[in-house]
Amino acid sequence: MSGVKSLAFFVAAVVGIGLAIGYLNVPGAWYATLNKPWFNPPNWLFAPVWTALYVLIAIAGWRAWCVTQNSDLKVLWTLQMALNFLWSPAFFGAQRPLLGLLVILPLLATIALFIWRARKADPVSAAMFLPYAAWVAFASLLNAAIVTLN
Fold this sequence. Notes:
Elements: H1 3-24, H2 28-33, H3 46-68, H4 71-93, H5 97-121, H6 123-149
Helix pairs in contact: 1-3, 1-4, 3-4, 3-6, 4-5, 5-6
């Protein structure tokens, strides 16, 4: 597959799966009843932020597979993607904030490890993961606050 086609495949797959998981695990009435911290952002913000992040995540994944061919980055990228896609079903689908926290903390650690390993092997991918790390750190804090308040 050519570079442009494989990049388009990564972007379409990551964004498409992410949006599908979000669509299948909407917050709903249950989430509305939860006590949330003062720093909880408005619900409308999550979809555009995640869409932009998924594009960056997809490009970094494409680079791991097609540009750097680094097996460590491939493994870490795949692991963080699995944890990322597991969080919404755990938190929203199962309606279990604690289970969500038990997914998001290893996700954050995996993202940090990807950045650490990519910083020399592929600095571009490491940089692309920085906004993702910041957002997941914030989401981890939000998830922990929801567990504490409920």
